[in-house]
Amino acid sequence: MLEPLRLMCVLAHPDDESLGNGGTLAKCADEGIELSLVTATRGQRGWKGPKDEDPGPDALGALRTAELEAAAAVLGISRLWVLDHMDGALDQADPQRVTLEIAQRIREAKPQVVLTFGPDGIYGHPDHIAISQFATAALVRAAAPDDALGGEPHAVSKLYYAAVTRELIDAYEAVFGVFDKHVDGRGRRAFAWPDWAVTSRIDARRFGGTVWEAIREHRSQLRDYQKLAELPEEQWLRMFGEQTYYRAFSLVNGGRGVEDDLFAGLREGRHG
Ligand SMILES: [Zn+2]
Q1: Ligand 1 centroid to 228 CA: how many Å?
Q2: Which structural domain range is residue 53 located in?
Q3: What domain count does the chain have?
Q4: Is 239 inside any structural domain?
Q5: Which of 127, 172, 178, 200 is a Cys-bridge partner for 245, taking CB atoms 3.0 to 4.6 Å apart?
Q6: pLDDT tens profile 191-240
């Protein structure tokens, strides 16, 4: 019996899975690929309503965890782990602890492919950058002999970073305006990967309905995302029709050809 194909996403906040990777995840689920998700924070500081109505980090974290569970179900994610790190402070978490938590879940779920943010964190978000580093380090820990982790070592075959293109940033900015995240007194804007660095383009056009359904489960965030509900189809497709990645690590590297499948090189001898 061949092992089933498995994809694990390692992300920072509830909604990273739907907004950034929803099309890829829905497509993989449709192909029968087993999906798991590790989300490092509960989005405890992501209140979008009036300041005096902010329920506080504990209550908001519980609410957003429930929203994430609902979105994960829509996308076909069968295993979800929400870790308890503080939203907005992931880069100050203990690296030994976070990489252990992720590596343990890698050993448990045994994904062949792992997906996370790139070193740019899309727009320099420190949590996204931190989880990219933790996920990458956790891959190494999971594969090495390490009794502290429990379970058997597991070597992931491919690691991908989300790599946004200029076209995608333009499409987002046309809807939401230019987003300038302030970190340590300096602005950080979205960083476009050059086209030649995009190794993998996933056609997600068929899954727009599922993606919107998943985004909509993040009800506490809809103040920001409601605009998406009225988007003309052409604009929606510019934002969600294709998801682009950079293959950061691979044991089955197929050269310079652009992949249309994150499991390229891993399906040989399988059906579908
Ligand atoms: Zn995020």
Answers
A1: 17
A2: 6-250
A3: 1
A4: yes
A5: 200
A6: 899 999 999 999 999 999 999 999 999 999 988 888 898 899 999 999 99
